[in-house]
Amino acid sequence: RAIAVSAGERHSLALTADGAVWSWGDGLRGKLGHGDQQDQPLPKKVEAFAGQRVIAVSAGGVHGLAITADGAVWSWGWGGFGQLGHGDEQDQLLPKKVEAFAGRRVVAVSTGRDHSFAITADGAVWSWGYGYQGRLGHGDTQSQLLPKKVEAFAGRRVVAVAAGSAHSLALTADGAFFTWGKGDDGCLGHGEDLSDQLLPKKIEAQVGAVTE
Q1: Which of 52, 67, 111, 123 could form a disulfide with 58 if both were Cys (CB 3.0 to 4.6 A apart)?
Q2: In whole angstroms, how far apart are CA 115 and each of 16, 25, 44, 211?
Q3: What is this structure's pTM?
Q4: 3-state helix, strand, coil in the chain (%, to 5)
């Protein structure tokens, strides 16, 4: 029985009730996690997680993330901008634990096209990978090979985060929305301000309010 799914770029992940991960679709750069680059026309269990209970998955453009029951993060696939979080730009054909989170419990992850996010149990947000247009939220456009805490959220508790292709969103415990990254087409929600945002910026519009 599947309990969660995630769609990437021409590939898919599913999480079953027994804590197993299944993947199918395009196998480019190892993004299916089976140790090769073969396409899979049918769901296939990711055997690298045997003996582990996975509680969340996220499929990015050409990479994937998973959280195991012990709060560890695992990543695999294309590592070209450091989005796997291992301190290098190497591809990983099999899931590999992100050692930067040793001693921390991760409760949520989200993958963009070439960047990644995690929320730790203390409500902090961490980002890594491609930094172009400020999508990592660190106030610059630098890429990060290792997870780095988004200091703009100091003093706030983040409860959800989502990575788009070139922009990012977060929801804080008080119900506020923050966006950052590429501002074209109004995707950041800041009205007529279509500029890129290098730091998380609160959406001032009343999201969910009834409008005439």
Answers
A1: 111
A2: 25, 21, 25, 35
A3: 0.94
A4: 10, 45, 50
